Amino acid sequence: MSLASRGALRKVWRPLRFALSLVLVGLAGWFVAGKTSELSGATAFLAQLRWPWLALASGAELASYLFMAALQGSLLNAGELKPHLLRVSVITFAGTTIQSALPAGTAFAALYQFRQFEVLGADEVLAAWVVVATAAVSFGTLAVLAGTGLSMAASTGSALDLVGAIVGVWAVALLAVLAWNRRFQVYAVSLRVVSAIEHRLRRTGRLSEPLERVVARMRTVTPDRRQWAAALSYGTASWLADCACLMFAFIAVGAPVPWDGLLLAYCGGQLAVNLPITPGGLGVVEGSLTVALVAFGGGRAATVAAVLLYRVVSFWAPLPVGAVCYGALARGRQRKSDETAATHAAAGVATHAAAGVATHAAAGVATHAASRDGVGGDAAALAAPPVVMPLVDRRQAEGGR
């Protein structure tokens, strides 16, 4: 993209971003204005907050992020890359902040994590595979938990009309598993289709050759059963830790936990996060969780208080942490870029100096040879650089004696 087009895009994006911010603020105000009675009742529960349980909720949310980082680390291990868990955790916090702060933030977060995995040492194929595999594992484990929650809620006779949605989630997850099991056939069909298109367009090798290299690299990125088991365990643990944060939020406000519908309502709320309506599902998650949990017997005011507390811990509190992580990664990358530039500059100076020394040495050798043969001694002395002149004069003097 040219500089002119980037400038034009910035001019369009700034007022658009301002307009989107106003719309989001208006939606939030409308949502709050329509829930004043529930919020007024929720403040009574928040006023008697139990701080030890709030600390447990915060610890559960932190564990959720660490399990997600461990999931990405286990997938990177399949490509023979073993990064430190702390570094991957910083990337996870920064990527989640991007996902939560921007409209369609999932796409921006995926691109950001792709670039950060490259900085860790992954090639483009491995970085892209880890991003896609992380999303697939998270989606698959959420589908399993949603099915479990549905079976638990079925005993109450209420499934919140989520049966169709969960069946659809299961179908998508099953198709993803089948595609992975048949990936080599998918690779072969893709290569044949691309080759046929190139032959028709008379562009042989333009796309098929890079695709063959990608496919060859993908064949080497194949987690074994132990690595898949670890990835699925980390993905499940991440969701359960986040759900535990919601459970501790209920206890922290002194409200009974609606156990029968807790897992199903939680999974429905997490599916709502991925809807590109508001950044991080802001407003959508709160509304869907509250409605679902009240339907399973939770008190209206107590449920509103618990959900608001859960969102503060799981959504709002990680935002500044992720922003700090984003800034730290940006500074580290800039520092590394500056060090690389300084190294190249020093190498260039050293090469230039070495070339100068070699030139002077060659001139001295030529002068010595000319003086020894007695041919062109004076001319060689005149042509020699100042560093070589004393050597030439001394040899001529010795010849005169």
- Strand portion, in percent? under 5%
Overall helicity: over 70%
Calculate the terminal CA-CA distance, rounded to whole Å: 75 Å
Rg estimate, integer Å? 33 Å
**Basic shape:** globular
Order of helices and strands: HHHHHHHHHHHHHHHH
> Biggest sheet, open or closed, and with what strands and sense?
none
What structural category do the secondary elements indicate? mainly alpha
Tell me the number of helical segments per DSSP (H or I, 4 or more residues long): 16
Mean pLDDT comes to 79
Number of domains: 2
Count of strand segments: 0
Descriptive notes:
The protein is mostly helical and 401 residues long. It has two domains: 35-181 and 223-316, no CATH class; 355-400, no CATH class. The chain is 83% helix and 0% strand. The protein has helices at residues 3-33, 36-47, 51-77, 85-101, 105-120, 124-153, 163-181, 183-201, 208-220, 225-252, 259-273, 284-295, 300-316, 318-373, 377-383, 389-400. Helix 2 (36-47) crosses helix 13 (300-316), helix 3 crosses helix 4 and helix 3 (51-77) packs antiparallel against helix 10 (225-252). 29% of the residues are buried.
